[in-house]
Amino acid sequence: MDDLMQIKDLKVYYPVRGGFWNRIVDWVKAVDGISFNIKAGETYGLIGESGSGKSTTGKSILGLQKVTSGSIKYNGHDVTKKSVRRSLKYNHDVQMIFQDPQSSLNPEKRVEEIIAEPLRNFEHLSKHQEKLRVLQLLDIVGLDPDALYKYPFQFSGGQRQRIGIARAVATNPKLIVADEPVSALDLSVQAQVLNFMKKIQREFNISYLFISHDLGVVRHMCDNIAIMNHGRLVEVGTKEDIYKHPVHIYTKRLLAAIPSIDVEHREEHRAERKRIEKIYQDKKDFYYDQNGKAFPLTKISPTHFVALPKDKLRQLNVSTDEEVES
Ligand SMILES: Nc1ncnc2c1ncn2[C@@H]1O[C@H](COP(=O)(O)OP(=O)(O)OP(=O)(O)O)[C@@H](O)[C@H]1O
């Protein structure tokens, strides 16, 4: 398989402002030099806890977040520049599925308009052709034609996510960034939506960047996986590497957090989880590089990253500007 996307040494820093003049007093190094490739037709998992920089990476790939440095190549073209994205019609080829279909679908619009929106931006279809295409998309995602005239609130969570998926595939994209696509759904519906995403992937040869904090969900979806912590990738590998032979302590900790369904080994699992939590507790103030080498976070440099969570930033009353100032 060829590489569709090549992300190289990507850095995204957010300014932290404070003091009397509201000057930049520090930087949140949300993404701090990560590299990975996504092949055509594969599902690439980006895993980490809240605040590790996953969504910032996703937004940068979608062109929604200005990057500080590094490159994001799509079929060999660097799409960090707006002019390149425009000339390649990049936003036609790269779409997204959001975490919460409740808030990502406009409640005032009917399903027909919601799904047709990306089509209107890129394709010049007649009203009739557009309706036929939306009906075809509803059929693909397993919704009845009368959904066309309904509003999002008239559907269940799983059905709303199907509408979100129909909108995402409307333009026949090559890549879909799926940011926690099932974490807002009931467990029983999660498997349905995941299987459904797989089906669509096979039919349309789509690549997914699958962002999640949940290694249990990712196991069903991903071919290759990167584990993210404090803006860096601490471990990268195939699904087998990560699940069968994890190297990094942080990966082991995430794996240990998956509840064991195997009743016989549940006690063993619980003990192993406690053991790993203890090691992690003792060592959490360290950043570990890919070789497992530890760097004390406090000693990196006074202005070096301390990736503060959003609510902490709010508590400190500092701004959380989306864009890095040049
Ligand atoms: N607009 C912003 N301004 C300042 N800091 C930000 C901004 N957006 C995110 N951050 C910070 O960047 C870091 C990474 O955030 P990001 O949302 O990318 O992480 P995440 O792994 O996707 O977490 P979550 O799953 O909670 O969204 C966090 O410390 C966060 O507080």
TrEMBL record:
The gene is oppF. GO terms for molecular function: ATP binding; ATP hydrolysis activity. The lineage of its organism: Bacteria, Bacillati, Bacillota, Bacilli, Lactobacillales. Keywords: ATP-binding, Nucleotide-binding, Peptide transport, Protein transport, Transport. Residues 5-255 form the ABC transporter domain. Coiled coil: none annotated. One of its GO terms (biological process) is protein transport. Pfam families: ABC_tran, oligo_HPY. The keyword Transport applies. SMART domains: AAA (SM00382). This is Peptide ABC transporter ATP-binding protein. SUPFAM superfamilies: P-loop containing nucleoside triphosphate hydrolases. Belongs to the ABC transporter superfamily.
